[in-house]
Design a protein that fits this description.
The protein is α+β, with helices and mostly antiparallel strands. It has one domain: Lipocalin, CATH 2.40.128. Helix content is about 20%, strand content about 50%. The chain is built from three helices and nine strands; from the N terminus they run H-E-E-E-E-H-E-E-E-E-H-E. It has an eight-stranded antiparallel beta barrel. It starts with a helix and ends in a 6-residue tail after the last strand.
Length: about 190
């Protein structure tokens, strides 16, 4: 009788643990990543978007505890240039081998390795980011909110483009660009995620 009660208690504990910690799918259609690249000294900038391919975040008792996203680099676009030819030329350049080389590396990824909860629904994260097949550790902050009944996470990542070989080589054009570019991530979880 005691063994039965103990086994029953174990089942209940395991069931509760499973319910309190759950991997939630990212709503790909509602999520996005904005990129911003800067001229040296940030005298001007270009920006646009890349779409997510997939993603999953782990929510533990309503709080973020881990997860990862995969970015579709082949979807990169520009939204600041209104001239059609200039826009097309820039996107072609971004997809080329001297920048993101999307034909060889069509995906980038961000995998969370450490989460520290902070006040005001913020999380200090350590993650591994992979761009052009090169992995680097990065730290950034995500803020949790809700919109239209869905859980949302927003944050800004500053990326060292030289470390990921996103550059013109060692030409004068490369020297005119800031060594860093930004990724503003907007992650929306599927309906019912908590």
């Amino acid at each position: 009788m005691k063994i039965t009660r103990v086994l029953g208690l174990v089942v209940v504990v395991v069931a509760l643990a499973t319910l309190s910690s759950k991997a939630q799918n990212v709503d790909i259609s509602a999520s996005n990543v904005k990129w911003t690249g800067y001229h040296l000294a940030k005298s001007y900038e270009h920006y646009g978007y890349v779409k997510l391919k997939s993603g999953e975040l782990t929510i533990n008792d309503g709080k973020l505890s881990g997860g990862s996203i995969v970015i579709n680099m082949a979807s990169i676009s520009n939204t600041d240039l209104t001239d059609e030819k200039k826009n097309k030329d820039l996107v072609k350049d971004l997809k080329s081998a001297r920048f993101f080389n999307t034909s060889e590396f069509p995906e980038a990824s961000i995998s969370i390795t450490k989460v520290t909860a902070r006040p005001n629904n913020e999380y200090a994260l350590t993650a591994e980011i992979e761009i052009r097949g090169i992995k680097q550790n990065i730290e950034f902050v995500l803020t949790q909110s809700t919109a239209n009944g869905k859980v949302v996470f927003d944050g800004k990542l500053e990326i060292d483009r030289i470390a990921h070989e996103v550059m013109y080589g060692w030409s004068i054009e490369n020297a005119m660009l800031s060594n860093n570019f930004d990724l503003d991530v907007h992650i929306v979880l599927e309906q019912g995620s908590r």
